[in-house]
Specification:
60 residues; mainly alpha
Length: 60
């Protein structure tokens, strides 16, 4: 909703019926995952799917 829907954080919180702080926390966490994946997938020839696998495995 934030990035593809063009909603503000406040609008997203209102539409989802959740606190604004939750929207902010989830958006930040999503950006952190994307940053890790982008960094992991930046090696030539490495498929992005393997980068996602490593990020998920590091959470365990």
């Amino acid at each position: 909703m934030l990035y593809f829907g063009g909603c503000t954080q406040a609008e997203t919180a209102e539409q989802l019926g959740i606190p604004l702080a939750t929207v902010k926390t989830r958006a930040r966490a999503a950006l952190q995952v994307l940053a890790r994946v982008a960094g992991a997938g930046s090696r030539p020839g490495q498929p992005l799917s393997s980068a996602f696998s490593r990020v998920n495995a590091s959470k365990s």
